[in-house]
Protein backbone atom coordinates (compact mmCIF):
# COMPACT_ATOMS: atom_id res chain seq x y z
CA UNK A 1 0.00 0.00 0.00
CA UNK A 2 1.32 3.40 -1.00
CA UNK A 3 0.29 6.93 -0.09
CA UNK A 4 -1.36 7.12 -3.50
CA UNK A 5 -3.53 4.09 -2.67
CA UNK A 6 -4.60 5.82 0.55
CA UNK A 7 -5.46 9.05 -1.27
CA UNK A 8 -7.58 7.12 -3.77
CA UNK A 9 -9.37 5.22 -1.00
CA UNK A 10 -10.24 8.52 0.70
CA UNK A 11 -11.30 10.24 -2.52
CA UNK A 12 -13.62 7.37 -3.58
CA UNK A 13 -15.18 7.22 -0.11
CA UNK A 14 -15.84 10.99 -0.17
CA UNK A 15 -17.17 11.23 -3.73
CA UNK A 16 -18.94 7.85 -3.98
CA UNK A 17 -17.67 7.57 -7.54
CA UNK A 18 -14.57 6.34 -9.32
CA UNK A 19 -15.07 9.01 -11.97
CA UNK A 20 -15.38 11.86 -9.49
CA UNK A 21 -12.42 10.55 -7.47
CA UNK A 22 -10.31 10.47 -10.64
CA UNK A 23 -11.32 14.04 -11.46
CA UNK A 24 -10.49 15.16 -7.90
CA UNK A 25 -7.04 13.58 -8.04
CA UNK A 26 -6.31 14.54 -11.68
CA UNK A 27 -5.81 10.94 -12.77
CA UNK A 28 -7.74 8.56 -15.03
CA UNK A 29 -10.73 6.52 -13.92
CA UNK A 30 -8.90 3.32 -14.87
CA UNK A 31 -6.06 4.27 -12.53
CA UNK A 32 -8.57 4.66 -9.69
CA UNK A 33 -10.23 1.35 -10.46
CA UNK A 34 -6.88 -0.42 -10.71
CA UNK A 35 -5.70 1.00 -7.38
CA UNK A 36 -8.92 -0.06 -5.63
CA UNK A 37 -8.55 -3.56 -7.06
CA UNK A 38 -4.96 -3.72 -5.75
CA UNK A 39 -6.11 -2.68 -2.28
CA UNK A 40 -8.92 -5.24 -2.25
CA UNK A 41 -6.55 -7.96 -3.39
CA UNK A 42 -4.12 -7.11 -0.63
CA UNK A 43 -6.91 -6.88 1.97
CA UNK A 44 -8.49 -10.14 0.77
CA UNK A 45 -11.96 -8.58 0.85
CA UNK A 46 -14.09 -5.95 -0.87
CA UNK A 47 -13.59 -2.42 0.38
CA UNK A 48 -16.48 -0.88 -1.58
CA UNK A 49 -20.01 -1.97 -2.37
CA UNK A 50 -20.70 -1.20 -6.02
CA UNK A 51 -24.34 -0.12 -5.94
CA UNK A 52 -26.44 0.91 -8.91
CA UNK A 53 -25.95 4.66 -8.51
CA UNK A 54 -23.13 5.01 -6.01
CA UNK A 55 -20.17 3.34 -4.39
CA UNK A 56 -20.00 2.95 -0.62
CA UNK A 57 -17.41 1.67 1.80
CA UNK A 58 -17.94 -1.77 3.24
CA UNK A 59 -17.37 -2.29 6.95
CA UNK A 60 -13.89 -3.54 6.14
CA UNK A 61 -13.31 -0.46 4.00
CA UNK A 62 -14.45 1.81 6.84
CA UNK A 63 -11.99 0.14 9.23
CA UNK A 64 -9.16 0.67 6.76
CA UNK A 65 -10.13 4.32 6.18
CA UNK A 66 -10.00 4.98 9.95
CA UNK A 67 -6.32 4.01 9.93
CA UNK A 68 -5.58 5.78 6.64
CA UNK A 69 -6.94 9.23 7.57
CA UNK A 70 -4.37 9.98 10.34
CA UNK A 71 -1.56 8.88 8.02
CA UNK A 72 -2.74 11.21 5.26
CA UNK A 73 -3.08 14.05 7.76
CA UNK A 74 0.50 13.47 8.92
CA UNK A 75 1.71 13.42 5.31
CA UNK A 76 -0.04 16.72 4.62
CA UNK A 77 1.57 18.27 7.68
CA UNK A 78 4.96 16.94 6.60
CA UNK A 79 4.53 18.42 3.12
CA UNK A 80 3.97 21.82 4.70
CA UNK A 81 6.94 21.41 7.06
CA UNK A 82 9.43 20.09 4.51
CA UNK A 83 9.39 23.37 2.61
CA UNK A 84 10.72 25.26 5.64
CA UNK A 85 13.10 22.75 7.19
CA UNK A 86 16.05 25.13 6.75
CA UNK A 87 14.19 27.71 8.81
CA UNK A 88 13.84 25.29 11.72
CA UNK A 89 17.05 23.25 11.65
CA UNK A 90 19.37 23.92 14.62
CA UNK A 91 22.77 25.57 14.10
CA UNK A 92 25.72 24.28 16.11
CA UNK A 93 28.70 26.48 16.93
CA UNK A 94 31.89 25.69 18.80
CA UNK A 95 33.90 28.66 20.00
CA UNK A 96 37.02 29.62 21.89
CA UNK A 97 36.52 31.36 25.23
CA UNK A 98 37.62 34.85 24.15
CA UNK A 99 35.46 34.86 21.04
CA UNK A 100 32.45 33.54 22.97
CA UNK A 101 32.93 36.27 25.58
CA UNK A 102 33.55 39.32 23.39
CA UNK A 103 32.67 38.68 19.74
CA UNK A 104 29.79 36.17 19.65
CA UNK A 105 26.94 37.56 21.82
CA UNK A 106 26.14 40.57 19.61
CA UNK A 107 25.76 38.71 16.30
CA UNK A 108 23.82 35.91 18.00
CA UNK A 109 21.41 38.38 19.56
CA UNK A 110 20.75 39.99 16.15
CA UNK A 111 20.37 36.58 14.48
CA UNK A 112 17.90 35.30 17.06
CA UNK A 113 15.85 38.49 16.76
CA UNK A 114 15.28 37.64 13.08
CA UNK A 115 15.10 33.84 13.49
CA UNK A 116 13.61 33.10 16.92
CA UNK A 117 12.51 29.67 15.69
CA UNK A 118 16.07 28.47 14.97
CA UNK A 119 17.94 27.09 18.00
CA UNK A 120 21.64 28.02 18.03
CA UNK A 121 23.78 25.91 20.35
CA UNK A 122 27.26 27.05 21.41
CA UNK A 123 29.96 24.89 22.95
CA UNK A 124 32.83 26.92 24.44
CA UNK A 125 36.15 25.04 24.39
CA UNK A 126 39.83 25.56 23.60
CA UNK A 127 40.83 26.32 20.01
CA UNK A 128 42.36 22.85 19.57
CA UNK A 129 39.25 21.12 20.85
CA UNK A 130 37.08 23.33 18.65
CA UNK A 131 38.71 21.90 15.53
CA UNK A 132 38.32 18.37 16.89
CA UNK A 133 34.60 18.96 17.37
CA UNK A 134 34.30 20.38 13.87
CA UNK A 135 36.20 17.41 12.47
CA UNK A 136 33.92 14.96 14.30
CA UNK A 137 30.82 16.62 12.89
CA UNK A 138 29.57 17.99 16.22
CA UNK A 139 29.57 21.57 14.95
CA UNK A 140 28.73 23.42 11.74
CA UNK A 141 31.24 26.21 12.37
CA UNK A 142 34.26 26.63 14.64
CA UNK A 143 35.28 30.07 15.87
CA UNK A 144 38.95 29.99 16.84
CA UNK A 145 41.98 32.19 17.42
CA UNK A 146 45.42 31.83 15.91
CA UNK A 147 46.57 30.12 12.74
CA UNK A 148 44.27 28.44 10.18
CA UNK A 149 44.04 24.69 10.83
CA UNK A 150 45.49 22.18 8.42
CA UNK A 151 43.09 19.91 6.59
CA UNK A 152 39.97 20.20 4.40
CA UNK A 153 38.79 23.47 5.92
CA UNK A 154 37.90 26.96 4.80
CA UNK A 155 39.10 29.65 7.21
CA UNK A 156 37.74 33.20 7.09
CA UNK A 157 39.44 35.91 9.21
CA UNK A 158 36.70 38.04 10.78
CA UNK A 159 38.60 40.09 13.35
CA UNK A 160 41.82 40.29 15.36
CA UNK A 161 43.18 41.65 18.60
CA UNK A 162 46.65 42.70 19.78
CA UNK A 163 48.40 40.96 22.65
CA UNK A 164 49.83 43.24 25.32
CA UNK A 165 52.60 42.65 27.83
CA UNK A 166 51.39 44.05 31.16
CA UNK A 167 52.48 44.15 34.77
CA UNK A 168 51.67 45.94 38.03
CA UNK A 169 52.82 49.59 38.27
CA UNK A 170 55.19 48.71 41.11
CA UNK A 171 56.62 45.60 39.46
CA UNK A 172 60.45 45.81 39.56
CA UNK A 173 61.28 45.92 35.90
CA UNK A 174 64.00 47.12 33.60
CA UNK A 175 63.65 50.42 31.81
CA UNK A 176 61.47 50.35 28.73
CA UNK A 177 61.50 49.27 26.00
CA UNK A 178 62.46 45.78 27.11
CA UNK A 179 64.56 43.70 24.77
CA UNK A 180 63.38 40.21 23.92
CA UNK A 181 66.35 38.85 25.83
CA UNK A 182 65.36 40.82 28.93
CA UNK A 183 61.71 39.81 28.60
CA UNK A 184 62.56 36.11 28.57
CA UNK A 185 64.54 36.56 31.81
CA UNK A 186 61.59 38.16 33.61
CA UNK A 187 59.00 36.43 35.79
CA UNK A 188 56.53 35.47 33.08
CA UNK A 189 52.89 34.56 33.70
CA UNK A 190 51.67 32.88 30.52
CA UNK A 191 48.84 30.88 29.07
CA UNK A 192 49.34 27.15 28.60
CA UNK A 193 51.11 25.67 25.58
CA UNK A 194 48.66 24.86 22.82
CA UNK A 195 46.49 27.91 23.50
CA UNK A 196 46.23 30.40 20.65
CA UNK A 197 47.68 33.19 22.80
CA UNK A 198 50.72 31.15 23.81
CA UNK A 199 51.28 29.85 20.28
CA UNK A 200 51.47 33.39 18.88
CA UNK A 201 53.99 34.41 21.53
CA UNK A 202 56.12 31.28 21.22
CA UNK A 203 56.20 31.58 17.42
CA UNK A 204 57.32 35.22 17.57
CA UNK A 205 60.03 34.44 20.12
CA UNK A 206 61.20 31.42 18.14
CA UNK A 207 61.69 33.52 15.01
CA UNK A 208 64.11 35.69 17.00
CA UNK A 209 65.88 32.74 18.59
CA UNK A 210 64.30 32.96 22.06
CA UNK A 211 62.19 30.69 24.25
CA UNK A 212 59.93 31.64 27.15
CA UNK A 213 60.16 29.74 30.45
CA UNK A 214 57.19 31.01 32.46
CA UNK A 215 56.99 31.09 36.23
CA UNK A 216 53.22 30.61 36.00
CA UNK A 217 51.29 28.65 33.39
CA UNK A 218 47.50 28.78 33.43
CA UNK A 219 44.50 27.89 31.30
CA UNK A 220 42.68 30.77 32.98
CA UNK A 221 43.42 34.31 31.82
CA UNK A 222 41.79 36.06 34.83
CA UNK A 223 44.13 34.11 37.12
CA UNK A 224 47.12 35.51 35.22
CA UNK A 225 45.69 39.03 35.40
CA UNK A 226 45.30 38.80 39.17
CA UNK A 227 48.83 37.43 39.52
CA UNK A 228 50.17 40.32 37.44
CA UNK A 229 48.16 42.86 39.48
CA UNK A 230 49.70 41.37 42.62
CA UNK A 231 53.16 42.17 41.24
CA UNK A 232 54.14 38.56 40.66
CA UNK A 233 55.32 39.02 37.09
CA UNK A 234 54.58 40.01 33.50
CA UNK A 235 51.66 38.49 31.61
CA UNK A 236 50.90 38.68 27.89
CA UNK A 237 47.20 38.64 27.07
CA UNK A 238 44.64 40.11 24.64
CA UNK A 239 44.06 43.83 25.01
CA UNK A 240 40.33 43.24 25.52
CA UNK A 241 41.07 41.18 28.65
CA UNK A 242 43.34 43.73 30.32
CA UNK A 243 41.59 46.90 29.15
CA UNK A 244 39.75 47.59 32.43
CA UNK A 245 42.82 46.97 34.56
CA UNK A 246 44.83 49.34 32.36
CA UNK A 247 42.13 52.00 32.62
CA UNK A 248 42.05 51.67 36.42
CA UNK A 249 45.83 51.79 36.62
CA UNK A 250 46.17 48.43 38.36
CA UNK A 251 48.20 47.27 35.34
CA UNK A 252 50.48 49.10 32.95
CA UNK A 253 51.47 48.19 29.41
CA UNK A 254 55.07 47.39 28.54
CA UNK A 255 56.83 48.12 25.29
CA UNK A 256 58.88 45.20 23.99
CA UNK A 257 61.47 45.70 21.26
CA UNK A 258 60.85 43.75 18.04
CA UNK A 259 57.68 42.20 19.42
CA UNK A 260 54.30 43.00 17.91
CA UNK A 261 51.73 40.31 18.63
CA UNK A 262 48.36 40.06 16.92
CA UNK A 263 45.95 37.16 17.20
CA UNK A 264 43.68 36.49 14.23
CA UNK A 265 40.11 35.37 14.83
CA UNK A 266 38.93 32.77 12.34
CA UNK A 267 35.62 31.34 11.28
CA UNK A 268 36.34 27.77 10.19
CA UNK A 269 34.12 25.30 8.37
CA UNK A 270 34.60 22.21 6.25
CA UNK A 271 35.41 23.31 2.72
CA UNK A 272 32.48 21.26 1.34
CA UNK A 273 30.02 22.38 4.03
CA UNK A 274 26.56 23.22 2.69
CA UNK A 275 25.45 26.60 3.97
CA UNK A 276 21.70 26.88 4.45
CA UNK A 277 20.22 30.35 4.09
CA UNK A 278 20.06 30.93 7.88
CA UNK A 279 23.59 29.60 8.41
CA UNK A 280 24.86 31.86 5.65
CA UNK A 281 23.14 34.82 7.34
CA UNK A 282 24.82 34.00 10.65
CA UNK A 283 28.23 33.69 9.00
CA UNK A 284 27.82 37.10 7.41
CA UNK A 285 26.75 38.61 10.73
CA UNK A 286 29.87 37.22 12.39
CA UNK A 287 32.16 38.42 9.61
CA UNK A 288 30.69 41.92 9.38
CA UNK A 289 30.71 42.25 13.17
CA UNK A 290 34.51 41.98 13.24
CA UNK A 291 36.14 45.40 13.20
CA UNK A 292 38.82 44.13 10.80
CA UNK A 293 36.52 42.12 8.55
CA UNK A 294 37.14 42.04 4.84
CA UNK A 295 33.87 42.63 3.02
CA UNK A 296 35.10 40.56 0.08
CA UNK A 297 34.99 37.53 2.35
CA UNK A 298 31.21 37.72 2.75
CA UNK A 299 29.55 34.49 1.74
CA UNK A 300 26.89 34.59 -0.97
CA UNK A 301 23.34 33.56 -0.18
CA UNK A 302 22.96 29.94 -1.38
CA UNK A 303 20.04 31.01 -3.59
CA UNK A 304 22.23 33.53 -5.47
Give a concise summary.
The chain is of the alpha/beta class and 304 residues long. The protein is built from twelve helices and eleven strands.
General description of the model:
This protein is of the alpha/beta class and about 300 residues long. It contains 12 helices and 11 strands. A hairpin with a 4-residue loop joins strand 1 and strand 2. The protein is rod-shaped and about 110 Å long.
Approximately how much beta-strand content do the residues carry?
Answer: 15-25%
Question: Share of helix among residues?
Answer: 40-55%
**How would you describe the shape?**
rod-shaped
**Major sheet:** 9 strands, mixed
Mean pLDDT over the residues: 89
Tags for this entry?
rod-shaped; two-stranded antiparallel sheet; 304 residues; 11 strands; alpha/beta
Question: What is the topology?
Answer:
Blueprint: H1 3-15, H2 18-25, H3 29-43, E1 48-50, E2 55-57, H4 59-82, E3 91-95, H5 97-102, H6 105-114, E4 120-124, H7 127-135, E5 141-145, E6 153-167, H8 180-185, E7 188-191, H9 196-207, E8 216-218, H10 221-229, E9 234-238, H11 239-248, E10 252-254, E11 261-270, H12 277-289
Parallel strand pairs: 3-4, 3-5, 7-8, 7-9
Antiparallel strand pairs: 1-2, 5-11, 6-9, 6-10, 6-11
Helix pairs in contact: 1-2, 1-3, 1-4, 2-3, 6-12
Amino acid sequence: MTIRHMEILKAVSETGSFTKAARLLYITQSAVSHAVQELETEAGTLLFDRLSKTIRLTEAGSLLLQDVLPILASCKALEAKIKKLERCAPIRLVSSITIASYFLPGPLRRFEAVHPEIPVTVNVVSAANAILELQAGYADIALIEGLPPHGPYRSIPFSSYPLLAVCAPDYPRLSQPLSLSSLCKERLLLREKGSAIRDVLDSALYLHGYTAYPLWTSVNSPALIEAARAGLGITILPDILVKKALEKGSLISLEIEDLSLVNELLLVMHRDKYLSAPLSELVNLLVTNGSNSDKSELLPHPDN
